[in-house]
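fyi for ur records
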Amino acid sequence: IRIGLLNGLNMTSLGRRDKNIYGTIGSLQELEDLVSDVGSKLGVEVVPFHSNHEGDLVDFVEQHDEIDAFLINPGGLWAFGEPTKLALHQSGKPFVEVHFANIYATGHDSVFTSQATGTVMGFRHFGYLGALVATVRHLRDSRQTDTA
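which gave:
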């Protein structure tokens, strides 16, 4: 199983952002390493990708057919990332939207939520781990159902 880990706009500032919202994670690299390490323990490969440019995220999704599912923190794209949402949806692969904070508590809606397989918000970097475990279980369960 391969999981694409997508991080969008503004995620390179991790470690310099409000610790009450973003917790103690020191950098985007630290976050990617954490998720990849947990993925290894689950027996899956995590393929991290970050860009502050939406077209790069779309290209990644469209060019990686070997990815079985995606975790995405759209960062600043939550409000207007229709092209990325469309690419994820058209991939036919499950995707889980992840946010450090509960964006709904601030009165905002994400364009990704309506197409996402699931969402995890408000648990800082731990939300990525919960999303990873749930996504791997979802993939394994669906593969068992397909072969039954």
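The radius of gyration is 14 Å. thats all i got for now
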